[in-house]
Amino acid sequence: MTLLDTLFQWFWTAMIFGSIAWYAVLLLYVGYHGGREILQMTKDLSEPSRKEPGDR
Amino acid sequence: MPLAPIDWLIIAVYLTGCIIAGVWMKRYVRSVEDFAVAGREMDINLGVASLAATELGIVTVMYTAQAGFEHGPAGAIPGVLGFLAMLLVGLTGFVIVPLRNAGVITIPELFEKRFGTRVRWLAGLVVILGGVLNMGIFLRLGGDFLVHVTGLPATYTIGGVEVRCLELMMTGLLCIVLVYTALGGMLSVLITDYLQFLVMGLGLVITSVLVLWNTGWTEFISGVWNAFESGTELVQASPAAGEPGKAVTMKHPFNPFESHGVWWVVWQAMLWVAVMTTWQTTIARVLSAKDATTAKKVYRRTSFYFVGRFALPGLWGAAAFLYFASHGGLGSELDSLTAMPAYLRHVVPTGLIGIVLAAMLAAEMSTDSGYLLTWATVIYNDLISPCLPRPLSSKGKLLTVRLLVVAIGIFLVIYGLWYELPGSAWDYLAVTGNIYLASLFALLVGALYWRAANSWGALAAIVLGAVGPITFLVVNAVVPKESQIPAEWAGLAAFIMAFGGLVIGSYLARALGRGYSGPVGKHKA
Questions:
Q1: B150 contacts: CB under 8 Å, gap ≥ 6
Q2: Which residues contact A18 (CB under 8 A, 6 or more apart)?
Q3: ipTM value for the complex
Q4: Crossing angle, helix B117-135 and helix B394-418, to 10 degrees?
Q5: Which residues contact residue B254 at a Cβ distance below 8 angstroms, ignoring those fewer than 6 apart?
Q6: Cβ of B70 under 8 Å from any chain A Cβ?
Q7: Confidence bin at B225 (pLDDT 50/70/90)
Q8: B217 contacts in A (CB within 8 Å)?
Q9: Does A9 contact chain B (CB < 8 Å)?
């Protein structure tokens, strides 16, 4: 195995473990904040004063 | 592992939740703008969930696992390039900021302002051709995954009638997606995408940990390297009775330039910049965002998700290679695509397989709904609407888009059943997407940043950009495998011809005093 192969091996190790960690973090963070945004969005959409969006 | 009642319960609860949430959002739809771009009310985290969920379907899991099966971890290089492209666009706002500020519903709509109605219509046609063909294999690959993970037989006989499991399962799933997408449009898609993002993320993490646990990281690394060095061969199932199956070997598992070839990586780099700025389902989230700043943030936060989108299923695929290499080969039914789901059946225990299946159903449904909505919106907005003598009523517009969603769904069921993949799934998806990616990318850059671009250049770019990928699809469908055109040449040729057509056509029109050119960068609605 060449030095370049070893470097790539470490690179993929970081990518795979980093991805698992990132997915777990996003799951919690986006799960919490996304839920709040849905509530806000449905509240905004049901505003009786909301002007009719421009139909196309 | 067979599915236990708890697994079926998890799946049933998940599907019911999606239907209720999706149908519930119908009450908020009042116009086509609500239906197509969620009234432009989408905020950052909902955008991240929706973008991540839409761009990761079972089809993604299948082709990225296939890449891992054949290339080891190096098969994830498109994900790294996608991450870099999305981060770059999210940091600079390249294309997406002026596009969001233009206040359009689709990309071709922008072209009308800059290049005239004919260019809008033709661009819409090319978008549909590339987009729907691209989506054509989603159901087949999704069904392959589900059938192999659950271990269901290909056919059941009920009362003397033969029922095909794959077709039945995928048609049923598509019907569920059609119900909530046709009723609630982008609003339903956003809510169900959010639920699907959670279930899918959980499933991806659990499955990856189980695969690592089962294989062991050190054993995995040394295993893929040894498989590459020793030239381990796995004979795949034969596509036709009586013919020998094709053997597959592990390419260089770490160095992507050796594993795929330099030109393939170059094509992928160009493709990903085009995807992040031009792919209509991705751009639909930009256009649904509250403002351009929100769209940029959504891009930045979602970008690293693209690494895992390739690396994690790629890990499962490479682990499947090692598993079958040490368990007597693939047998008479498996190939590089179906090996991964068959492998998961062996490593995921009862109870968890329900979560993994729900996750994959989530992935499939979020992708199908996002794509159905996007292509239906383009057909209505850019192909039908410009041809109407007078605008439809608000109800008429909504009904038309809803019927188009259903019509695309019917097409998918029919097309997905007979089309045979000419090569790897990812190459098929990349090349069909390339039919419009190259030309529309050239057009967008020209429309937003090049004052001299005009309608002649735009038309030349659309036609020439589509020639390479369509030639690839047609030629490779009729010639023997050894004479087929490599995907990277078809893809690279599309970009070169599209940009060449834009420049030459624009200068030719100027020289002849012809062609139409609207204002640059003044597209505020």
A1: B3, B345, B357
A2: B304, B307
A3: 0.86
A4: 40
A5: A5, A8, A9, A11, A12, B72, B73, B74, B225
A6: no
A7: very high
A8: 13
A9: yes
Token pair belonging to B95:
């294309």
Closest chain A C-alpha to B181 CA, distance in angstroms? 17
Q: DSSP E strands: which ranges in B74-132?
A: none
Cβ atoms of residues B401 and B35 within 8 Å: yes
Q: Which has more pLDDT, A16 or B239?
A: A16
Q: How confident is the model at residue B459 (pLDDT cuts 50, 70, 90)?
A: very high
- The whole-chain average pLDDT of chain B stands at 85
Residue B162's identity, in one-letter code, is E
| pLDDT at residue B467 in the model | 81
CB contact under 8 A, B217 and A13: yes
**Chain A residues inside the 8 Å CB shell of B191:** 38
- The whole-model pTM stands at 0.84
Q: Tell me, what's the pLDDT at B423? A: 60
Considering only alpha carbons, which residue of chain B is nearest residue A46?
Answer: B28
Which residue in chain A is spatially nearest to B385 when comparing CA positions?
Answer: A56
**Contact flag B33-A55 (C-beta cutoff 8 Å):** yes
Which among B250, B248, B246 has a CA at the least distance from the CA of B238?
Answer: B246
The residue among B243 and B15 whose pLDDT is bigger is B15
